[in-house]
Amino acid sequence: MTGKHRLQWASLLLAGAVLGASSVLFLQYLPESLIRPAEAAGGKVAGPNVEAPERYVYYPGTEVLAEDEVRVIACGTGMPDQRRGQASACFLFEFGNGEKLIFDIGSGSMRNVNALMIPTEYLTKIFISHLHTDHWADLNALWAGGWTSGRPVPLEVWGPSGQTEDMGTAYAIDHFLKAFNWDYQTRAFKITPVPGQIKVHEFDYKAVNQVIYDQNGIEVRSIPAIHAGDGPVSFIIEYAGLKLVFGGDTSPNKWFVEHAKDAEFVIHEAFASPGFFQADYGQPPQLAWRACCEFHTSGPAFGKIMSEIKPGHAVAYHTMEEAHQELLLSIRSTYDGPLSIAMDMMVWNITKEGVKERMAVSPERASGVPGPTRQPPPEKGRPSPMSDFIASGEWGPGFNAQNNMLDEHSRKYNLEKMDWRPAKPWYKPTE
Fold first, then answer.
1. Which residues contact 7 (CB under 8 A, 6 or more apart)?
2. Within its chain, how far is the Cα of 203 from the centroid?
3. Predicted confidence band at 41 (pLDDT cuts at 50, 70, 90)?
4. How is 57-72 classified by DSSP, letter by letter?
5. Residue 78: which of 67, 90, 66, 70 has the closest Cα?
6. Is the domain of 307 the same as that of 424?
7. Which of 242, 271, 278, 411 would staple 288 via disulfide (CB 3.0–4.6 Å)?
8. Which residue range(s) make up the domain with 283?
9. What pTM did the predictor assign?
Protein backbone atom coordinates (compact mmCIF):
# COMPACT_ATOMS: atom_id res chain seq x y z
CA MET A 1 0.00 0.00 0.00
CA THR A 2 1.48 3.35 -0.99
CA GLY A 3 1.66 6.37 1.29
CA LYS A 4 -1.17 7.93 -0.74
CA HIS A 5 -3.34 4.84 -0.26
CA ARG A 6 -2.56 4.74 3.47
CA LEU A 7 -3.80 8.31 3.76
CA GLN A 8 -6.93 7.47 1.73
CA TRP A 9 -7.53 4.38 3.85
CA ALA A 10 -7.20 6.32 7.11
CA SER A 11 -9.55 9.01 5.85
CA LEU A 12 -12.13 6.49 4.73
CA LEU A 13 -11.99 4.63 8.03
CA LEU A 14 -12.51 7.90 9.87
CA ALA A 15 -15.50 8.65 7.70
CA GLY A 16 -16.85 5.16 8.35
CA ALA A 17 -16.47 5.62 12.08
CA VAL A 18 -18.43 8.86 11.90
CA LEU A 19 -21.24 7.00 10.13
CA GLY A 20 -21.51 4.67 13.14
CA ALA A 21 -24.01 1.87 12.49
CA SER A 22 -23.82 2.56 8.77
CA SER A 23 -20.09 1.82 8.64
CA VAL A 24 -20.55 -1.76 7.45
CA LEU A 25 -22.63 -0.50 4.57
CA PHE A 26 -20.03 2.21 3.98
CA LEU A 27 -17.21 -0.37 3.72
CA GLN A 28 -19.11 -2.20 0.99
CA TYR A 29 -18.43 0.71 -1.32
CA LEU A 30 -14.66 0.89 -0.69
CA PRO A 31 -12.37 -0.12 -3.56
CA GLU A 32 -11.27 -3.73 -3.08
CA SER A 33 -7.60 -2.63 -3.15
CA LEU A 34 -8.18 -0.64 0.03
CA ILE A 35 -9.89 -3.37 2.02
CA ARG A 36 -7.23 -5.25 3.98
CA PRO A 37 -7.57 -7.96 6.63
CA ALA A 38 -6.24 -7.13 10.09
CA GLU A 39 -2.56 -8.06 10.35
CA ALA A 40 0.10 -8.06 13.03
CA ALA A 41 2.80 -5.43 12.64
CA GLY A 42 5.00 -6.59 9.79
CA GLY A 43 2.65 -9.25 8.42
CA LYS A 44 0.39 -12.17 9.32
CA VAL A 45 1.19 -14.67 12.06
CA ALA A 46 0.38 -18.06 10.58
CA GLY A 47 0.02 -20.08 13.79
CA PRO A 48 0.56 -20.31 17.56
CA ASN A 49 4.07 -21.76 17.40
CA VAL A 50 5.73 -20.37 14.29
CA GLU A 51 8.34 -17.80 13.44
CA ALA A 52 6.83 -14.33 13.71
CA PRO A 53 7.01 -11.91 10.80
CA GLU A 54 9.34 -8.95 10.74
CA ARG A 55 8.39 -6.42 13.44
CA TYR A 56 9.93 -3.29 11.93
CA VAL A 57 13.11 -3.81 13.94
CA TYR A 58 16.73 -4.58 13.15
CA TYR A 59 18.67 -7.14 15.16
CA PRO A 60 22.39 -6.30 14.79
CA GLY A 61 24.46 -9.02 13.21
CA THR A 62 21.52 -10.86 11.66
CA GLU A 63 21.35 -9.19 8.26
CA VAL A 64 23.75 -9.38 5.32
CA LEU A 65 23.66 -6.31 3.10
CA ALA A 66 23.30 -6.60 -0.64
CA GLU A 67 26.37 -5.50 -2.59
CA ASP A 68 24.69 -2.25 -3.68
CA GLU A 69 23.06 -1.47 -0.31
CA VAL A 70 24.01 0.88 2.54
CA ARG A 71 22.83 0.68 6.15
CA VAL A 72 23.03 3.79 8.34
CA ILE A 73 22.62 3.55 12.13
CA ALA A 74 22.12 6.58 14.36
CA CYS A 75 24.42 5.97 17.33
CA GLY A 76 23.92 9.49 18.67
CA THR A 77 21.38 12.18 17.77
CA GLY A 78 21.25 14.62 20.67
CA MET A 79 22.93 17.53 22.38
CA PRO A 80 26.32 18.07 24.10
CA ASP A 81 24.89 17.08 27.50
CA GLN A 82 24.33 13.48 26.44
CA ARG A 83 21.68 11.56 28.31
CA ARG A 84 21.25 7.88 29.12
CA GLY A 85 18.65 7.61 26.38
CA GLN A 86 20.29 9.94 23.85
CA ALA A 87 23.96 10.34 23.02
CA SER A 88 25.65 13.10 21.07
CA ALA A 89 26.16 13.00 17.30
CA CYS A 90 27.33 9.75 15.69
CA PHE A 91 26.25 7.89 12.55
CA LEU A 92 27.65 4.54 11.41
CA PHE A 93 27.56 3.85 7.66
CA GLU A 94 27.81 0.17 6.68
CA PHE A 95 28.32 -0.68 3.02
CA GLY A 96 27.45 -3.78 1.04
CA ASN A 97 31.13 -4.47 0.38
CA GLY A 98 31.83 -4.81 4.12
CA GLU A 99 33.32 -1.35 4.71
CA LYS A 100 32.20 0.63 7.77
CA LEU A 101 32.73 4.37 8.23
CA ILE A 102 31.86 6.36 11.36
CA PHE A 103 30.74 9.95 10.85
CA ASP A 104 31.26 11.91 14.07
CA ILE A 105 31.66 10.18 17.41
CA GLY A 106 30.17 12.49 20.00
CA SER A 107 29.92 12.17 23.77
CA GLY A 108 28.27 8.94 24.94
CA SER A 109 27.87 7.45 21.47
CA MET A 110 30.21 4.49 22.00
CA ARG A 111 27.61 2.83 24.22
CA ASN A 112 25.37 2.57 21.18
CA VAL A 113 28.20 1.58 18.86
CA ASN A 114 29.16 -1.23 21.26
CA ALA A 115 25.57 -2.43 21.36
CA LEU A 116 25.84 -3.29 17.66
CA MET A 117 28.42 -5.98 18.57
CA ILE A 118 30.72 -5.26 15.64
CA PRO A 119 34.35 -6.36 16.08
CA THR A 120 36.44 -3.26 16.64
CA GLU A 121 38.89 -4.21 13.92
CA TYR A 122 36.16 -3.14 11.50
CA LEU A 123 35.54 0.20 13.25
CA THR A 124 38.77 2.00 12.48
CA LYS A 125 37.76 4.82 10.09
CA ILE A 126 36.31 7.97 11.65
CA PHE A 127 35.27 11.14 9.83
CA ILE A 128 34.95 14.20 12.06
CA SER A 129 32.84 17.11 10.83
CA HIS A 130 34.22 19.56 13.42
CA LEU A 131 35.86 19.62 16.81
CA HIS A 132 33.02 20.38 19.22
CA THR A 133 32.98 17.71 21.93
CA ASP A 134 29.50 16.50 21.00
CA HIS A 135 30.97 15.43 17.64
CA TRP A 136 34.25 13.77 18.62
CA ALA A 137 34.57 13.38 22.43
CA ASP A 138 33.98 9.61 22.41
CA LEU A 139 37.00 9.02 20.21
CA ASN A 140 38.74 8.18 23.50
CA ALA A 141 36.24 5.38 24.19
CA LEU A 142 36.68 3.86 20.72
CA TRP A 143 40.46 4.26 20.95
CA ALA A 144 40.96 2.67 24.37
CA GLY A 145 37.95 0.34 24.38
CA GLY A 146 38.82 -1.12 21.00
CA TRP A 147 42.43 -1.55 22.12
CA THR A 148 41.43 -3.62 25.15
CA SER A 149 38.82 -5.64 23.25
CA GLY A 150 41.21 -6.86 20.58
CA ARG A 151 41.57 -4.29 17.79
CA PRO A 152 44.82 -5.27 16.04
CA VAL A 153 45.39 -2.09 13.98
CA PRO A 154 45.57 1.69 14.48
CA LEU A 155 42.65 4.07 14.07
CA GLU A 156 42.41 6.46 11.12
CA VAL A 157 40.79 9.88 11.43
CA TRP A 158 39.72 12.21 8.64
CA GLY A 159 39.00 15.77 9.67
CA PRO A 160 39.24 19.39 8.54
CA SER A 161 42.05 21.84 8.98
CA GLY A 162 41.46 25.10 10.85
CA GLN A 163 41.95 28.76 10.21
CA THR A 164 45.18 28.35 12.20
CA GLU A 165 47.22 25.22 12.86
CA ASP A 166 46.01 24.92 16.46
CA MET A 167 42.38 24.84 15.29
CA GLY A 168 42.76 21.80 13.01
CA THR A 169 42.21 18.06 13.36
CA ALA A 170 45.90 17.10 13.26
CA TYR A 171 46.64 19.41 16.20
CA ALA A 172 43.64 18.04 18.10
CA ILE A 173 44.68 14.40 17.65
CA ASP A 174 48.32 15.16 18.51
CA HIS A 175 47.24 16.76 21.78
CA PHE A 176 44.65 14.04 22.36
CA LEU A 177 47.51 11.53 22.40
CA LYS A 178 49.54 13.80 24.67
CA ALA A 179 46.63 14.14 27.08
CA PHE A 180 46.18 10.36 27.15
CA ASN A 181 49.90 9.57 27.22
CA TRP A 182 49.68 7.68 30.55
CA ASP A 183 46.89 5.58 29.10
CA TYR A 184 48.93 4.94 25.95
CA GLN A 185 52.20 4.05 27.67
CA THR A 186 50.64 1.59 30.11
CA ARG A 187 48.54 -0.21 27.50
CA ALA A 188 51.40 -0.20 25.00
CA PHE A 189 53.60 -2.03 27.52
CA LYS A 190 50.99 -4.47 28.85
CA ILE A 191 49.14 -5.25 25.59
CA THR A 192 50.76 -3.95 22.37
CA PRO A 193 51.45 -0.43 21.08
CA VAL A 194 50.03 -0.79 17.56
CA PRO A 195 46.29 -0.25 18.32
CA GLY A 196 47.12 2.94 20.22
CA GLN A 197 48.34 4.70 17.11
CA ILE A 198 46.11 7.17 15.24
CA LYS A 199 46.78 8.11 11.62
CA VAL A 200 45.38 11.55 10.77
CA HIS A 201 44.19 12.61 7.31
CA GLU A 202 43.67 16.36 7.58
CA PHE A 203 42.13 18.14 4.59
CA ASP A 204 41.43 21.75 3.67
CA TYR A 205 38.15 22.86 5.22
CA LYS A 206 37.74 25.48 2.46
CA ALA A 207 37.89 22.97 -0.37
CA VAL A 208 34.58 22.61 -2.21
CA ASN A 209 33.49 19.12 -3.23
CA GLN A 210 37.02 17.80 -2.78
CA VAL A 211 37.61 14.04 -2.67
CA ILE A 212 39.11 13.19 0.73
CA TYR A 213 38.60 9.40 0.65
CA ASP A 214 38.48 7.01 -2.31
CA GLN A 215 38.80 3.36 -1.34
CA ASN A 216 36.98 0.10 -2.13
CA GLY A 217 34.36 1.76 -4.30
CA ILE A 218 33.48 4.42 -1.69
CA GLU A 219 34.15 8.09 -2.36
CA VAL A 220 33.82 10.75 0.31
CA ARG A 221 33.92 14.45 -0.57
CA SER A 222 33.99 17.50 1.68
CA ILE A 223 32.21 20.84 1.43
CA PRO A 224 32.51 23.81 3.82
CA ALA A 225 29.90 24.26 6.55
CA ILE A 226 28.98 27.37 8.54
CA HIS A 227 28.97 26.81 12.29
CA ALA A 228 30.51 28.89 15.09
CA GLY A 229 33.80 29.52 13.28
CA ASP A 230 36.03 28.37 10.42
CA GLY A 231 36.65 24.64 10.16
CA PRO A 232 33.37 22.66 10.11
CA VAL A 233 32.50 20.64 7.02
CA SER A 234 29.79 18.40 5.61
CA PHE A 235 30.43 15.08 3.85
CA ILE A 236 29.06 13.68 0.60
CA ILE A 237 29.36 9.89 0.28
CA GLU A 238 28.95 7.99 -2.99
CA TYR A 239 28.78 4.22 -3.32
CA ALA A 240 27.24 1.84 -5.89
CA GLY A 241 25.38 4.66 -7.60
CA LEU A 242 23.98 5.97 -4.30
CA LYS A 243 24.57 9.50 -3.05
CA LEU A 244 24.36 10.08 0.71
CA VAL A 245 25.08 13.22 2.72
CA PHE A 246 26.08 13.83 6.34
CA GLY A 247 25.80 17.48 7.24
CA GLY A 248 27.48 17.57 10.65
CA ASP A 249 26.58 20.94 12.22
CA THR A 250 25.79 23.75 9.84
CA SER A 251 23.48 26.67 9.33
CA PRO A 252 21.95 27.07 5.83
CA ASN A 253 24.72 27.51 3.26
CA LYS A 254 25.15 27.66 -0.50
CA TRP A 255 27.56 24.70 -0.71
CA PHE A 256 25.09 22.28 0.84
CA VAL A 257 22.24 23.43 -1.39
CA GLU A 258 24.41 23.03 -4.49
CA HIS A 259 26.19 19.75 -3.78
CA ALA A 260 23.57 17.78 -1.81
CA LYS A 261 20.97 18.00 -4.57
CA ASP A 262 19.16 14.81 -5.57
CA ALA A 263 20.88 12.60 -2.98
CA GLU A 264 19.08 9.41 -2.02
CA PHE A 265 19.67 10.05 1.70
CA VAL A 266 20.50 13.29 3.53
CA ILE A 267 21.26 13.82 7.23
CA HIS A 268 21.13 17.45 8.36
CA GLU A 269 20.76 19.05 11.76
CA ALA A 270 17.44 20.65 12.78
CA PHE A 271 17.34 22.54 16.06
CA ALA A 272 14.34 23.07 18.29
CA SER A 273 12.75 26.53 18.50
CA PRO A 274 14.10 29.41 20.59
CA GLY A 275 11.11 29.04 22.91
CA PHE A 276 11.94 25.40 23.57
CA PHE A 277 15.57 26.15 24.38
CA GLN A 278 14.52 28.92 26.74
CA ALA A 279 11.79 26.97 28.54
CA ASP A 280 13.18 23.42 28.53
CA TYR A 281 16.94 23.83 28.14
CA GLY A 282 17.52 26.77 30.43
CA GLN A 283 19.06 29.10 27.88
CA PRO A 284 18.63 32.88 28.13
CA PRO A 285 16.48 34.37 25.34
CA GLN A 286 19.40 36.06 23.57
CA LEU A 287 21.30 32.77 23.30
CA ALA A 288 18.27 30.63 22.47
CA TRP A 289 17.39 32.49 19.28
CA ARG A 290 21.00 32.62 18.09
CA ALA A 291 21.77 28.97 18.89
CA CYS A 292 18.68 27.76 17.08
CA CYS A 293 18.82 30.03 14.10
CA GLU A 294 22.22 31.69 13.55
CA PHE A 295 24.87 28.99 13.94
CA HIS A 296 22.50 26.00 13.73
CA THR A 297 19.53 25.24 11.46
CA SER A 298 15.95 25.60 12.65
CA GLY A 299 13.02 23.42 11.60
CA PRO A 300 11.62 25.82 8.97
CA ALA A 301 15.13 26.42 7.57
CA PHE A 302 15.78 22.66 7.43
CA GLY A 303 12.54 22.22 5.51
CA LYS A 304 13.44 24.97 3.06
CA ILE A 305 16.80 23.32 2.37
CA MET A 306 15.17 19.93 1.76
CA SER A 307 12.52 21.44 -0.52
CA GLU A 308 15.34 22.87 -2.58
CA ILE A 309 17.62 19.82 -2.81
CA LYS A 310 14.78 17.22 -3.00
CA PRO A 311 16.43 14.19 -1.33
CA GLY A 312 15.05 10.70 -1.64
CA HIS A 313 14.84 10.72 2.17
CA ALA A 314 15.68 13.47 4.67
CA VAL A 315 16.82 12.89 8.25
CA ALA A 316 16.72 15.63 10.88
CA TYR A 317 18.87 15.21 13.99
CA HIS A 318 20.48 17.19 16.83
CA THR A 319 17.57 17.87 19.15
CA MET A 320 15.93 16.38 22.22
CA GLU A 321 13.17 13.85 21.67
CA GLU A 322 10.70 15.89 23.74
CA ALA A 323 10.98 18.59 21.06
CA HIS A 324 10.21 16.26 18.16
CA GLN A 325 6.51 17.08 17.77
CA GLU A 326 7.12 20.82 17.65
CA LEU A 327 10.08 20.28 15.31
CA LEU A 328 8.03 18.08 12.99
CA LEU A 329 5.34 20.73 12.63
CA SER A 330 7.89 23.45 11.95
CA ILE A 331 9.66 21.36 9.29
CA ARG A 332 6.34 20.54 7.65
CA SER A 333 5.65 24.26 7.26
CA THR A 334 8.30 24.32 4.50
CA TYR A 335 8.80 20.68 3.40
CA ASP A 336 6.41 17.85 2.58
CA GLY A 337 8.82 15.17 1.38
CA PRO A 338 10.07 11.91 2.96
CA LEU A 339 11.33 12.62 6.46
CA SER A 340 12.66 11.04 9.64
CA ILE A 341 13.41 12.80 12.90
CA ALA A 342 16.29 10.72 14.17
CA MET A 343 16.39 8.90 17.48
CA ASP A 344 19.30 6.90 18.86
CA MET A 345 19.44 3.39 17.34
CA MET A 346 17.23 4.28 14.37
CA VAL A 347 18.29 2.32 11.27
CA TRP A 348 17.90 3.05 7.57
CA ASN A 349 18.65 0.65 4.71
CA ILE A 350 19.22 2.54 1.48
CA THR A 351 19.03 1.09 -2.03
CA LYS A 352 18.06 2.44 -5.44
CA GLU A 353 14.55 1.15 -4.73
CA GLY A 354 14.13 3.34 -1.64
CA VAL A 355 14.76 3.70 2.08
CA LYS A 356 13.62 1.28 4.78
CA GLU A 357 13.47 2.62 8.35
CA ARG A 358 13.52 0.54 11.54
CA MET A 359 14.78 0.64 15.13
CA ALA A 360 17.65 -1.53 16.29
CA VAL A 361 17.00 -3.95 19.14
CA SER A 362 20.23 -4.47 21.05
CA PRO A 363 21.47 -5.55 24.51
CA GLU A 364 22.06 -3.00 27.24
CA ARG A 365 25.32 -4.63 28.33
CA ALA A 366 27.03 -5.78 25.15
CA SER A 367 30.76 -6.32 25.45
CA GLY A 368 33.43 -6.20 22.77
CA VAL A 369 33.10 -8.90 20.12
CA PRO A 370 36.34 -10.55 18.95
CA GLY A 371 37.16 -10.40 15.27
CA PRO A 372 39.16 -12.88 13.17
CA THR A 373 42.52 -11.08 13.53
CA ARG A 374 44.72 -11.34 16.62
CA GLN A 375 46.58 -8.37 18.06
CA PRO A 376 50.38 -8.40 17.72
CA PRO A 377 52.25 -9.46 20.88
CA PRO A 378 53.75 -7.01 23.38
CA GLU A 379 56.78 -5.16 22.09
CA LYS A 380 60.04 -6.73 23.29
CA GLY A 381 62.42 -4.43 25.09
CA ARG A 382 59.83 -1.74 25.71
CA PRO A 383 60.63 -0.08 29.08
CA SER A 384 58.12 -0.65 31.83
CA PRO A 385 56.16 2.41 32.97
CA MET A 386 56.19 0.99 36.51
CA SER A 387 59.08 1.88 38.83
CA ASP A 388 60.83 -0.56 41.16
CA PHE A 389 59.37 1.39 44.06
CA ILE A 390 55.77 0.67 43.03
CA ALA A 391 56.55 -2.92 41.97
CA SER A 392 58.05 -3.61 45.41
CA GLY A 393 54.63 -3.04 46.92
CA GLU A 394 53.12 -6.18 45.35
CA TRP A 395 51.82 -8.47 48.12
CA GLY A 396 52.88 -12.05 47.40
CA PRO A 397 50.20 -14.00 49.32
CA GLY A 398 47.46 -12.34 47.27
CA PHE A 399 49.18 -13.14 43.99
CA ASN A 400 50.06 -16.74 44.96
CA ALA A 401 46.45 -17.38 45.97
CA GLN A 402 45.56 -17.50 42.28
CA ASN A 403 48.27 -19.94 41.22
CA ASN A 404 46.01 -22.95 40.80
CA MET A 405 43.74 -21.02 38.47
CA LEU A 406 46.68 -19.63 36.49
CA ASP A 407 48.47 -23.00 36.27
CA GLU A 408 45.33 -24.51 34.74
CA HIS A 409 45.05 -21.65 32.26
CA SER A 410 48.74 -22.01 31.35
CA ARG A 411 48.43 -25.74 30.65
CA LYS A 412 45.28 -25.28 28.58
CA TYR A 413 46.85 -22.70 26.27
CA ASN A 414 50.54 -23.78 26.38
CA LEU A 415 51.70 -20.59 28.07
CA GLU A 416 54.52 -22.10 30.13
CA LYS A 417 57.23 -20.26 28.17
CA MET A 418 55.34 -16.98 28.61
CA ASP A 419 54.72 -17.30 32.36
CA TRP A 420 55.27 -13.91 33.96
CA ARG A 421 55.28 -15.15 37.56
CA PRO A 422 58.76 -16.72 37.98
CA ALA A 423 60.37 -13.27 37.53
CA LYS A 424 58.53 -12.01 40.61
CA PRO A 425 60.36 -12.20 44.00
CA TRP A 426 57.18 -13.28 45.78
CA TYR A 427 56.40 -16.26 43.47
CA LYS A 428 55.93 -19.62 45.16
CA PRO A 429 55.06 -22.43 42.69
CA THR A 430 52.17 -24.69 43.57
CA GLU A 431 53.44 -27.95 45.04
1. none
2. 22
3. low
4. EE-TTS-PPPTT-EEE
5. 90
6. no
7. 278
8. 69-360
9. 0.88
